[in-house]
């Protein structure tokens, strides 16, 4: 165009060419052509740089992309938000791949096969420039999408770079972004995973002061961490806060507390928690149940041991009935009656309803009649009364 008509293209024409070469090309063969065209632009603008940034990231030329980003900053230009999102997202993905598992083809045998080989030791080569890009664009008044910010925080936490994660979270909080609650949750879970008790406690208090509502997974992470390090009073306080905030516990919450109190040989609290757990419909792990049962027997509380077993058996029977597992439900009720355990009325009704639903009530009728007879007072008892 310039040679034939003696007319130099303007940036609009150049940018359209770069857009096609960098964003629409799928082969990667034209990125060098795009670079040469870019260098021929007298005064490249935001869109010129942004198109090339996307193209370089798209085809794995990350070092050159970072150089372009820095060059853009020196020129006093700010990239487009979509270009920043693309650059940061690709850097985070590259960082995740650095610590991932690779497939290696083994050919030294008669029949080649593939094995999975983990990368030894987490690397952080790609995450550093991602943090640098984030902080740089924030200083320029541009914020990436919340999805990309969360991706960055998640990757930093995975790598154990909690200082950097806190730095990003601080920016998110100061700018009052709508991903602040999710960011806090991710960092909280990471702190608990790394057993950074003081940092986790401080951040949890910060969440409450900001009137953020921690999710169940956050409460569970804190309680599990505190139980593992033996701070049961603190774990109990968090459990109480959880109740006040109307966040319902699940089996993970109760199992952690029951196991911790059981290991501390506090059978009273462990028993109460286990009964509460069963009352809410959760079935404890076998190890948690046997631990509490053993403590009850050691302290001569056979009555509570039997009560706990009856409660557990009834709950398991109820689960079988709800799931339509008729054979398992039949065997469970039969074994309970042999032990002298009679399920509560709501479980009996669930048992009858399950068999009736599948047209097999006759099979269960004998068991139900035996149970009803066992529950009736004898004639001698009636006369005596």
Automatic annotation (TrEMBL):
Keywords: Repeat
UniProt entry tagged with the keyword Cell membrane: no
Gene3D superfamilies documented for this protein: Tetratricopeptide repeat domain (1.25.40.10)
InterPro entries according to UniProt: PPR_rpt, TPR-like_helical_dom_sf
Domain of life: Eukaryota
PPR repeats, residue ranges: 45-79, 180-214, 215-249, 250-284
Family: Belongs to the PPR family. P subfamily.
The protein, known as: Pentatricopeptide repeat-containing protein At1g09900-like isoform X2
Species per Swiss-Prot/TrEMBL record: Populus euphratica
């Amino acid at each position: 165009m310039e040679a034939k008509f003696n007319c130099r293209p303007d940036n609009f024409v150049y940018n359209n060419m770069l857009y096609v070469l960098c964003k629409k090309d799928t082969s990667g063969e034209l990125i060098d052509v795009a670079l040469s065209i870019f260098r021929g632009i007298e005064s490249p603008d935001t869109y010129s740089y942004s198109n090339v940034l996307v193209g370089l990231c798209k085809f794995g030329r990350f070092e050159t992309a970072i150089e372009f980003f820095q060059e853009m900053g020196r020129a006093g230009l700010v990239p487009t938000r979509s270009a920043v999102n693309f650059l940061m997202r690709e850097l985070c993905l590259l960082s995740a791949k650095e610590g991932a598992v690779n497939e290696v083809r083994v050919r030294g045998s008669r029949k080649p096969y593939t094995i999975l080989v983990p990368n030894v030791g987490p690397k952080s080569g790609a995450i550093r420039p991602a943090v640098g890009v984030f902080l740089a664009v924030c200083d320029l008044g541009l914020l990436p999408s919340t999805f990309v910010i969360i991706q960055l925080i998640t990757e930093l936490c995975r790598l154990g770079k909690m200082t950097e994660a806190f730095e990003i979270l601080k920016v998110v909080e100061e700018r009052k972004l709508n991903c602040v609650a999710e960011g806090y949750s991710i960092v909280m879970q990471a702190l608990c995973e790394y057993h950074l008790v003081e940092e986790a406690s401080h951040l949890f208090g910060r969440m409450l002061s900001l009137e953020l509502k921690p999710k169940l997974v956050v409460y569970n992470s804190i309680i599990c961490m505190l139980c593992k390090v033996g701070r049961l009073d603190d774990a109990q306080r968090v459990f109480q806060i959880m109740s006040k905030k109307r966040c319902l516990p699940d089996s993970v919450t109760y199992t952690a507390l029951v196991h911790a109190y059981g290991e501390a040989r506090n059978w009273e609290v462990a028993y109460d928690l286990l009964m509460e757990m069963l009352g809410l419909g959760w079935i404890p792990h076998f190890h948690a149940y046997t631990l509490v049962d053993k403590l009850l027997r050691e302290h001569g509380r056979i009555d509570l041991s039997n009560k706990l077993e009856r409660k557990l058996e009834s709950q398991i029977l109820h689960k079988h009935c709800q799931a339509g597992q008729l054979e398992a439900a039949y065997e469970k009720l039969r074994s309970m009656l042999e032990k002298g355990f009679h399920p509560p009325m709501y479980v009996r009704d669930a048992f009858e309803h399950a068999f009736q639903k599948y047209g097999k009530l006759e099979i269960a009728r004998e068991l139900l009649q035996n149970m009803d007879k066992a529950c009736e007072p004898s004639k001698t008892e009636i006369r005596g009364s």
